[in-house]
Design a protein that fits this description.
6 helices, mainly alpha
């Protein structure tokens, strides 16, 4: 895969990870909630007025646009497995930003994902 395509992959992965992190911050600000018929409208209004939630959704939109450009250049059977890099970025960022625990099993999963990406990108 050429360097421009790698840049597109990493851009999509990092923007998608940013979306996850922004949604997490927004969800934390809501202090938990449960959907039911009586609170759907108030919950939707809270979500629609939360800057972090809106930022996360905007990141998703940009990520999809970058992804479409990438798919116009690379086989989907190569590109889509590279999305798994987002699991690594998100796990590390959550550990760093939110103090989330990285267990031995999660670190092992990161190593497996990296090995899988290595195998997929070999010619």
């Amino acid at each position: 895969m050429n360097p421009v395509n790698w840049i597109l992959v990493l851009t999509a992965v990092f923007i998608n990870a940013a979306a996850q992190l922004l949604l997490k911050v927004g969800a934390r600000a809501l202090n938990g909630f449960a959907f039911n018929v009586g609170n759907i409208v108030p919950i939707l209004l809270k979500l629609a007025s939360n800057g972090f939630i809106l930022g996360g959704l905007a990141c998703y939109v940009v990520s999809v646009l970058v992804w479409i450009v990438l798919l116009s250049r690379v086989e989907v059977s190569l590109a889509y497995p590279l999305v798994s890099l987002g699991y690594i970025v998100t796990a590390l960022a959550a550990w760093w930003l939110f103090g989330e625990h990285l267990s031995t099993e999660r670190v092992a999963g990161v190593v497996v994902i990296l090995f899988g990406v290595f195998l997929i990108t070999r010619h």
